[in-house]
């Protein structure tokens, strides 16, 4: 592939490292309930909605809670998470990402965000990226969480791009699956261990140019 129609980026773990703040807030909540989990289980929480995450945590020990209690716990976790991300600033954008986005813009390739998070707009504001992305589809705009492809399909529609010619960048296994389910070109950002189903896995954006990436994809 020489030039895609568009590129859609997941936010958490791709543009900025917020995954650890999610992990710590969920772990703190789980521990308050007497449930423990580690990094391996946390991989299953990446990319999925707040609701789905708490369901997965409660399922760890077969816990059933009334709806109001589930709501209260989600709010508690979100409060801790929001406190943890409140200091984010443009410097926190992951290394190599600004240069990569800049070249895509120079090449006139439309770019968008496809995130499950209902906090995405806050993060975009903190990072001052509002003028960078043409389209932002986040957790407030979708009904079905990844691995459902809804978030990326809505993104592609808004960017006027054909999924088969649109690259999706994802750090979560559920996100790679969502991209594959929507017949996008999937690029996993992180480790092959969790993202092996992606069309291509890159460790990060450091030193990567769009041209190099497109060449790697077309060589596959
Ligand atoms: C992202 C993160 C998930 C998080 C989800 C919902 O996809 O990777 O860990 O659960 O967003 O985030 P929210 O900010 O709405 O709780
Ligand atoms: Mg992510």
Please supply descriptive tags for the structure shown above.
220 residues; alpha/beta; 6-stranded parallel beta sheet; binds 6-O-phosphono-alpha-D-glucopyranose; binds magnesium ion
What does this structure look like?
There is one protein chain. The chain has 220 residues and is α/β, with parallel strands linked by helices. Helix content is 44%, strand content 11%. It has a 6-stranded parallel sheet. Strand 4 (166-170), helix 8 and strand 5 form a beta-alpha-beta unit. Helix 1 crosses helix 4. The structure holds 6-O-phosphono-alpha-D-glucopyranose (G6P) and magnesium ion. Magnesium ion binds at residues 10, 12-14, 46-47, 171-172, 175.
SSE topology:
Elements: E1 6-9, H1 19-32, H2 39-42, H3 50-59, H4 67-85, H5 97-106, E2 111-114, H6 120-126, E3 135-137, H7 150-159, E4 166-170, H8 173-181, E5 185-189, H9 192-195, E6 200-202, H10 210-219
Parallel strand pairs: 1-2, 1-4, 2-3, 4-5, 5-6
The structure holds 6-O-phosphono-alpha-D-glucopyranose and magnesium ion (MG).
Magnesium ion (MG) binds at residues 10, 12-14, 46-47, 171-172, 175.
The major β-sheet equals:
6 strands, parallel
Bound molecules: 6-O-phosphono-alpha-D-glucopyranose, magnesium ion
* Structure annotation, total helices: 10
Low-confidence stretches: none
Number of strands: 6
* Helix-strand category: alpha/beta
How much is the radius of gyration in Å?
A: 17 Å
């Amino acid at each position: 592939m020489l030039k895609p129609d568009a590129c859609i980026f997941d936010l958490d773990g791709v543009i900025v490292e917020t995954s650890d703040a999610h992990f710590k807030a969920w772990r703190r909540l789980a521990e308050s309930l007497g449930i423990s989990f580690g990094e391996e289980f946390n991989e299953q929480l990446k990319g999925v909605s707040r609701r789905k995450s708490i369901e997965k945590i409660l399922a760890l020990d077969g816990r059933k809670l009334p709806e109001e209690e589930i709501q209260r716990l989600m709010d508690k976790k979100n409060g801790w998470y929001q406190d943890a991300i409140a200091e984010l600033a443009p410097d926190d954008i992951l290394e190599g990402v600004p240069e990569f986005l800049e070249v895509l813009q120079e090449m006139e390739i439309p770019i968008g965000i496809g995130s499950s998070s209902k906090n995405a707009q806050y993060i975009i504001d903190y990072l001052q990226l509002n003028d960078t992305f043409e389209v932002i589809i986040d957790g407030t705009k979708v009904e079905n969480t990844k691995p459902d492809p809804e978030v990326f399909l809505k993104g592609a529609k808004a960017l006027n791009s054909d999924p088969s010619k649109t690259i999706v960048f994802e750090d979560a296994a559920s996100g790679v699956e969502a991209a594959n389910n929507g017949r996008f070109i999937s690029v996993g950002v992180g480790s092959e261990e969790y993202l092996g189903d992606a069309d291509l896995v890159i460790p990060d954006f450091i030193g990567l140019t769009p041209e190099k990436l497109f060449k790697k994809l077309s060589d596959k």
